[in-house]
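During the practical work, I selected for study one protein's amino acid sequence and its backbone structure tokens, as given directly below:
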Amino acid sequence: MSKAKGGEAPTTSGLVVSGFGRHYVVESDEGVRTICHPRGKKSLCVVGDRVRWQITGDEGVIEELEPRRNLLFRQDEWKTKAFAANLDQVLVMVASEPVFSESQLARALIAAESAGIAASILLNKADLPQIAAARDRLKPYVEMGYSVLEIALKAQPEASRAVLNPLMAGRASLVLGPSGTGKSTLINLLAPDARAQVGEVSQALNSGRHTTTSTQWYWLDAERRTGLIDSPGFQEFGLKQVDAQKLPALMPDLRDASTRCRFYNCTHRQEPGCGVREALAQGAISESRYRIYGEIRQELEGTRW
């Protein structure tokens, strides 16, 4: 605990566990949650941030944002959406049904790579017949080194728990994915008191209307060492924060191949001696991955592919 300027109440460190506009819920090291507002007009905090804050009556004021280890966000031409900060890993959730968007999956993984955060893929509904097709679509990701973990949250809850618990123990994990993949089922399985934790937030804000559309931190153990962060489903995933020339370095299957290009600034379109197109011709890079690379590169450069 440190003393604020001008003899004001001392500030203390806390964890941001949810946020709605300029309202944040900050949890003290003792586990007490308080609704807080940032000092000034800017709202720069996200779930997972550590902040310095102080009590003012029944609420609190956030005085300072502590340095972040990392920040996962997406950015399009109009706005930036931050998911969470200080993460140990990102778990990108897909399912055998409905058919998942490989473009969305690739973009989430690129964002994690760009932020320096480890990522794994959770493949839910492994009990359904469509699992074979989903596995086939994910083969390139297994081959490039991503861990793909199969679960069946509703059909095999205990087996799924046995897969997930070691993966998440002692870590801060963000579960990311579109609606319909089973994120709510996962949260209810791993955090039995999730409703109570959300209820605390709703009571603090005197409103429950935000609880299904805002990012939320859940503790999975009584010791508060294992954190699960749930973020709303997304339809679009812009990557405007990525330098177009550095994009191949964020895609493991293109990364090595791009080092074999004749030209250092190769775009992997038509240049002679392109290591990426050579790997594509040899089957080391899949057609779908090359297409996704082209789509993202076109967005970043504002040019036609």
The radius of gyration is 21 Å. The chain has a mean pLDDT of 90.
